[in-house]
Amino acid sequence: MENLVNIFVRSIFIDNMIFAYFLGMCSYLAVSKTVKTSFGLGIAVVFVLLITVPVNYLLDNWVLKPGALRWLLGEEAAGIDLSFLSFIIFIAVIAAMVQLVEMVVEKFTPALYNQLGIFLPLIAVNCAIMGASLFMQERNYAHVGEATVFGLGSGIGWMLAIVGIAAIREKLAYSDIPVPLRGIGISFIITGLMGIAFMSFLGINI
Amino acid sequence: MSEKESLFSAKNRQLLLGPLSKDNPVLVQILGICSALAVTAKLEPAIVMALSVTAVTAFSNVILSLLRNTIPTRIRIIVQLVVVAALVIVVDQILKAFSYEISKQLSVFVGLIITNCIIMGRIEAFALANKPWPSLLDGIGNGLGYGLILVIVAFFRELLGSGTLFGFQVIPQVLYDWGYQNNGLMILPPMALILVGIIIWVHRARNKDLIEK
Asked: Which residues of A touch B213 (CB under 8 A)?
């Protein structure tokens, strides 16, 4: 249990997808103009991460890893290593899941669907989603619970970052910034400063 | 493009060279920042990453440009992802076979080339509407434009952060004896963002027409 809390806190604050790994920067910069839309996108990312990371974890452990097919084919499967296929399988799962989430949301909560609008399909190519699956594979989590918590935490960390920058950018409209730096340039620098602030969480271990 | 047009006509040269500055994918189109910055603490991985992305962009542009008339629009995203993912697997296996150390350093970022917005962006915006040869040039140009930024950022981060270039000491020991210190902040992730911000600043100050309102 402690371990789960630790993974959760780490993935939000220390291994933050944006400030530590720059993942999902494209939509982060493109959508962070108002707090409302960035919150919507944040929720969608949390949702998709929460589903895709555990699904990919199960696929990785039961199908792709060396010898993972033993439960199906018996002992002769010990030498089968499908891990080179993981990129293609992960991206297929992500694309399919995004499609599925889109359909479910559209069917059951049309209000939310209208709010998220174009952001949902865009999530398929958000690097944060693919990145979380690849980090999950690299870090060898012990069971599917840990992977789920990691997915949830990364999503919340990403949402925190995008809502934060959106709030700052709304205020920034009133600031006197050097002309060539306006827009994207200052967003980069502010993200960097936020990253430095987030580094004060380094070393927290629960 | 007409059949008679030469392979390196002015228009095609523009496809290749435009993305290096005026039309730079990172600075102007704001694509592909995702998997880029984390690999720029040192020059060597940055260059390997730049080459990998250039190769994948070029080949995926050519392949999808060849397929462009046969893909139904509704499923094109999936087709694109599969082609790109297959190319990235090839790159990953090559890196693992020939430079295992660098492949370890790049870790997940090789896989993240799949979701690099430059690749999907150029396929959507260019390859699906153009013939293979211009698509190839466009892919190479954008890959190199991206690589250029990676190399600039990595140059400053390695020089100021570790005092080395490609792992060789370039700041003389004398300076350290006089009290010069490496700037440890440069190695940390946030400085990559701030450096890109500054590069955008310089770039826009020189190209006034790119300035946002």
From this structure: 182
